[in-house]
Amino acid sequence: MDSLTFEVQSLFYQSAYRGCIALAQMHSPSGPIDDESLLRLVYAARSALALGDIPGARQLLGDDAEQPVAMSVLLLADFMEMHHAGDEEGSADVLEQMATLLDVVEPGELASDIVRYNVGLALYTKGDSTKALETLGVTGTGGSTKLECISLGVHILLAIHRVDLAEKEYLAARQWGDDSVLVQYMEAWIGLVRGGRSTQQAFYVYDEMSQSSTIANTQNMAPALIGKAVAQAAQLDVPAASSTLQEAASLDADHPLLSANQAVVSALATNVPAEDVDSWMSAHTNAVPDSHLARMWEEKRAALEEAVASMA
């Protein structure tokens, strides 16, 4: 992987999706596409999907892409479109097509890992966490060396409340990939879910990311600032979280993670009554539900209700 492709990849890993797309397009050749150029466009197309821009993802790769790694992204676009439209039969057919690509890519290569990640992501989106983890090769024992697959696996494990297994995967990956952006983010995700003192380490991760000279004072800095604000809010430093989100908004007001987290911090700042929080959160995070704080609130509320019910 050349330095330019590495930079495009890093922007994708940091959720700096628009920056990833812009950089890949800027250096896209007008003639035949070599392997490095294709890989950059793959990350750009995945960024477009993360932004919900399915047509944009298809345009970046072209509808007749023949390489398995590009085909997996285009099929993921088809899957997302059908899934969101409620076409379960169609999305299941596409998922089967995606799975066949696992047999035609060379194991151990980055392209193979991306294909596996995309299949795992589709399975998880479909609601099959167990099959997704099996496909990703993330068993909770730390045996995988596929970093992208591990990162998604950690996300899934945290979502199904297996923090213990997520931490095992993270600790194993840290032994050989400690300098990777994804490994650092895994540490932050686990810290936010664990809460307490662990949120301080999450803050350190995002704060360090936001100070990188390659993204400083650009829209690419916004995702790291959003993560930093989440950590600040988790530490109940609401004024600091609000200020950090304002800084993020000044750099990228349309980032998909921004508005939901702004809504949660606003609820904390204005002391929304407990009985009104559910409706308030629903009204303010419906458009962008992917909020660490929104998920944390739901998990804590559910745990409280369960505890109250057990004492009844």
TrEMBL record:
The record's subcellular location field reads: Cytoplasmic vesicle, COPI-coated vesicle membrane; Golgi apparatus membrane
What does the UniProt keyword field contain?
Cytoplasm, Cytoplasmic vesicle, ER-Golgi transport, Golgi apparatus, Membrane, Protein transport, Transport
Q: Which InterPro entries match?
A: Coatomer_esu, TPR-like_helical_dom_sf
Gene Ontology annotations of biological process type: endoplasmic reticulum to Golgi vesicle-mediated transport; intra-Golgi vesicle-mediated transport; protein transport; retrograde vesicle-mediated transport, Golgi to endoplasmic reticulum
- Superkingdom per UniProt: Eukaryota
Q: Name one GO cellular component term.
A: COPI vesicle coat
Q: Any idea which GO molecular function terms this record carries?
A: structural molecule activity
Q: Give membrane topology per the record.
A: Peripheral membrane protein
Quote the function comment for this protein. The coatomer is a cytosolic protein complex that binds to dilysine motifs and reversibly associates with Golgi non-clathrin-coated vesicles, which further mediate biosynthetic protein transport from the ER, via the Golgi up to the trans Golgi network. The coatomer complex is required for budding from Golgi membranes, and is essential for the retrograde Golgi-to-ER transport of dilysine-tagged proteins.
Family statement drawn from the similarity comment of this UniProt entry: Belongs to the COPE family.
Name the chain's protein.
Answer: Coatomer subunit epsilon
Organism listed in the record: Malassezia pachydermatis
